[in-house]
Design goal:
Layout lengths: L1 H18 L8 H4 L10 H14 L13 E4 L13 H13 L10 H7 L3 H5 L2 H13 L2 E2 H14 L15 H12 L3 E9 H12 L6 E13 L2 E12 L5 H9 L6 E4 L5 H8 L6 E6 L20 H9 L2 E4 H4 L7
Parallel strand pairs: 1-3, 1-6, 3-4, 6-7, 7-8
Antiparallel strand pairs: 2-5, 4-5
Catalytic activity: O-phospho-L-serine + H2O = L-serine + phosphate; O-phospho-D-serine + H2O = D-serine + phosphate
InterPro entries: HAD-like_SerB, HAD-like_sf, HAD_sf
EC number: 3.1.3.3
């Protein structure tokens, strides 16, 4: 009897061990349906192959989980950016809503142009004019007051052409890519020229990216008492611009590790993709090319927003993947 019992136990343990998943195996097969909004083709296959190879311990391109960092621009990469950056729409709406409480704004030409609905005149001042609009709409309030202002705006405002809430104009194929990466133990970060505090309000709900994994342009802040309570106060002084050469610096300062994957859509993302893909070891640079004038917008070299010129010229030479929105994506926005 003992002999038969011993044989049974050995057989049972052998079977159980054979059914146990092996550690560190890629979960790509399990997660494949997450890319259901992508058409079969070069772009989808390149992304899937890269993720599979970097998460398969038997692959020469295997990357340990602790080193799997993926960074993505936001405007034009994760959500739309035409006919102008959505954060600028927020600034304009804030100014119109609060102008009566700020007589000091009467001396700022760009703000007076906004109040007269002359957007062209407001933006003719270039970067300086835009900074003026951002400073007055993003500062002289507590961090929580600003966050609540952004939340309210997202609930109430609609895109002038699509009629959609701005935070619903995110790209479904990119949301799926973020999910696929996280399913394969990649940490996903936003690295944007947009405002870090603006993005942190809604990025987790939209993309599954928590506030501490958002890197962006920032204003200075101070910690002081207000109404009997210690608060973080946003002040109208520029702290850091997270664009172009600033993006690799922002990655270094906030993340502290070189990414494996970087995605963007404009020449403002060039240095971030360059930084990610230069040197030894596996890496993937991705450009989202806006080619779909029917479902979204078609623009690149001559665009006033999200200009993609140098990136288009150099992508093939540098081995960067260019995703054609019209051809590679079955859908644009979430249903």
């Amino acid at each position: 009897m003992k002999k038969y019992l011993l044989v049974f136990l050995i057989s049972f343990l052998t079977f159980a061990c054979s059914q146990t998943p092996q550690n560190n195996q890629s979960s790509l097969t399990k997660a494949e349906p997450f890319l259901e909004s992508w058409n079969e083709g070069v772009s989808k296959k390149a992304i899937e192959d890269f993720i599979k190879n970097t998460t398969d311990p038997n692959s020469p391109d295997f990357i340990p989980e602790k080193d799997r960092i993926a960074v993505f621009d936001n405007d034009g990469t994760l959500w739309a950016e035409q006919p102008m950056y959505f954060q600028l729409y927020y600034a304009i709406d804030f100014i119109k809503k609060n102008a009566s409480d700020h007589p000091e704004w009467s001396k700022i030409e760009s703000i007076q142009a906004i109040l007269q609905d002359d957007l062209k005149a407001a933006l003719d001042g270039g970067t300086q004019a835009i900074l003026e609009l951002v400073m007055v709409s993003h500062s002289d309030m507590t961090a929580e007051e600003f966050a609540q202002s952004v939340r309210s705006w997202l609930q109430e405002s609609r895109h002038p052409q699509t009629g959609k809430p701005y935070n619903q104009m995110i790209y479904q194929p990119m949301v799926e890519l973020l999910e696929l990466l996280r399913a394969n133990d990649y940490k996903t970060f936003i690295v944007s020229g947009g405002g870090i505090d603006f993005l942190r309000v809604w990025a987790e709900e939209a993309y599954g990216i928590p506030p501490y994994q958002v890197v962006g342009t920032s204003l200075k802040a101070k910690y002081e008492e207000q109404n009997g309570k210690m608060e973080i106060i946003k002040i109208p002084e520029l702290n850091f611009i997270d664009d172009k050469e600033g993006k690799p610096v922002g990655i270094h300062q906030h993340i502290g590790m070189k990414p494996i994957i970087a995605g963007g859509n404009s020449d403002g993302d060039y240095q971030m993709i360059e930084y990610t893909t230069q040197g030894s070891g596996p890496s993937l640079g991705i450009y989202i090319h806006h080619t779909d004038s029917i479902r979204e917008y078609a623009y690149d070299r001559e665009s006033h927003v999200g200009r993609l010129d140098k990136g288009l010229d150099d992508a093939a030479r540098l081995g960067w993947l260019v995703v054609d929105m019209a051809k590679d994506w079955k859908t644009i926005y979430p249903e």
